[in-house]
Amino acid sequence: MMPLPWAMVFFPWVGALVLLALPKLRVAAAVNIGCAAISFVLALALFTLPHGEQGWTRIDALNLPFVLLASFVALTTAIFSAATLAAEGFDHWRIRAYHGAFQVFLGAQYLALLSDNLGVLWVAIEIATLASVLMVAVHRTPAAMEAAWKFFMLCGFGIALALFGTILLYSAAQALLDAESGLSWVALRRVAARCDADTLNLAFVFLLVGYGTKAGLVPLHSWLPDAHAEGPIAISAVLSGLLLNAAMLAVLRAKAIVGAHPDTLAVGPFLMALGLASVLLASLALWRRRDARRFFGWSSIEHMGIAAFAFGIGGPAANLAGLLHMIGHSLVKSAIFFGIGRAAQQKGSQKLADISGLIASDPWLGWGLALAIGAIAGLPPFLLFASEYAVLNAAIVAQPWLAVALALGLVLAMTALIHTLQALCFGAPTPDVAPSGSALAVLVPLWLHLAVALLLGLAMPSIFSSFLKAAAGMIG
Amino acid sequence: MSFGQLPYDLAHLLGGAVLLLSFVLLYQRRIAAVINAFATQGALLALAAAWQGYVQGAAGLYVTAAIAFGAKAVLIPFALHRLVRRFNLQRGVDPALGIGVSMIAGVALAGFAMLVVLPATAGQRALAREDLALALSVVLLGGLMMITRRNLISQVIGLLSLENGLILAAVGVAGMPLVMELSTAALVLMLAVIAGVFALQMGESFQSLDTESLDTHRGEGE
């Protein structure tokens, strides 16, 4: 009998094989939703298992909440995708490729989150990259090709550095490991205290820059806004909602190994520097965007920067704030992309200037999007308000001067977001050029995400918060 | 094992030769020559992997060597040559940075790699350390090639040669789990296939493999 975490990984890949054989849009979209729904049930079932390793996978307090989150976002995105894909005008080859790549991507995400072996983790992130490059390029317009090429080249470079870091990590620990444990995270963490500190430092730098590229951290962030602007809009939702989190958790796993050695460099300042640079650059870049999807892509860079900054401060409180921030960002950002997707279809353009007055023309969409953008800007009462407040608090205690810079970035970004919120949702409506598809399949996921973000912000279920507290302790 | 013993000397020589080929890649002016230099590097990498397999007594490394030879010395160069002929790209590679400047940058990067890796791995065997230093140089030079070339095929080869550096690092660390080498090799192949598809499609839509033609589509398209 296959362990449940393995089933979680392989099931979407079997689904991908089936989807590759389905040329009809409606059938493929329904099967896609079905696969995502079963994955969601499997993710819930993982919570009943005892924590620990099953061969090359491991379930613990750090990855379980993110697996559940990923499968939830995947399910709502599959529903959204089914409702909006007809407007993309795909031929049957693209329908096959798109749905197949979608499930391959999901399986790779679950593998990246669940893997205990750092080699397997690397392979998973690589597969996720390849699948998402295909989905970004699926329209084959020059802009899509440029975005996919940049994505492919930068992430190929980043991921190569991450592999070099993994090899260095193994070379540091090789004398202390037995043959079976290989690249196991648990085994590496156990022996880390007796490894050579300098080699660990070097390995961490490579792992941070490598996986940091995939997490959208400055300076190798520039693939992210382009990739978010191309391909069917469902891709933007899973890129921001899933891929960035998986890459950030990989950085955290590396941090936990290196941090287990008493004499290594403090890794916190590296994370804080990259995080703060991401927040500041994004908070300025947000003011210059004219494309809605690119705008919210930049906002993802800002939020991953905030999370990285929190993990850089370290300690249970800041780590918890960082984890909460990642969860809140995934929920709200994918909700925003659902709303923007519908608005862009109605208005026939994804330029910010062409989308205006959504509340007047489509109140449920307009208000949903307004609340979601408010939430991503850090306004109460959503989860992101609580987490940003906690990050700032921890920063003021640990690094008062950096807290000032962080607050400046947050305020700049917030005003840019509110500015865009006003333009998109209020004001005189621009005319609709195309009839949009089913409203329910877009609005239900959007409002559901908002409701979950609200619930987690106001009253987090105790089982979830105990998981996250344990996770915050694990990453040190 | 140290200087003056055959296992060490030969491994060092092969690693150095792979690095040398990275420099050769930097100063080629014709695409066909770039591809040939890359094929030579792939063959040398396969030799280095096989020699490590012999020295470490690890049969799995022979598989790695065979995959590296088949993919990097034969298949990928063959495919790239066909691509070049099909689109009639027998022209210069048009580096964004002059040859002289990129050679100097290359030497600086190789020196940087030595300075970073050698002190940081002081606790390990001499061979593993120097292998890692050579490998990091190859990785960085691959990255340099990706940056300094505007031609699409040169950029792809930069990425592939960068992956050569990774394999060199992986085979040099004794006992590195085989799973990883196999998957690395397989994935490199996939990368090349996808890149090839890209190149092909861009060839159709732009009649050129110059990434400069893509620059107008960058960012907000202003």
Fill in the keyword field for this structure:
heterodimer, A: 476 residues, mainly alpha, two-stranded antiparallel sheet, 19 helices, B: 222 residues, 8 helices
Task: Tell me what you see in this structure.
The complex is a heterodimer of chains A (476) and B (222). By secondary structure, chain A is mainly alpha-helical. Chain A has helices at residues 4-20, 25-46, 64-84, 92-114, 118-137, 142-173, 185-191, 197-214, 223-229, 233-259, 268-285, 292-313, 315-347, 358-361, 363-376, 383-398, 400-425, 440-458, 462-474, and strands spanning 52-54, 57-59. A two-stranded antiparallel sheet of chain A has the order 1-2. In chain A, strand 1 and strand 2 (57-59) form a beta hairpin. The radius of gyration of chain A is 21 Å and the shape is globular. By secondary structure, chain B is mainly α. Chain B has one domain (14-211). Chain B has eight helices and no strands. Chain B has helices spanning 6-27, 31-56, 60-86, 99-120, 126-148, 152-172, 178-206, 212-215. In chain B, helix 1 (6-27) runs antiparallel to helix 6 and helix 4 packs antiparallel against helix 5 (126-148). The longest helix of chain B is centred in the C-terminal third of the chain and has 29 residues, at 178-206. The interface between A and B is large, with 45 and 50 residues.
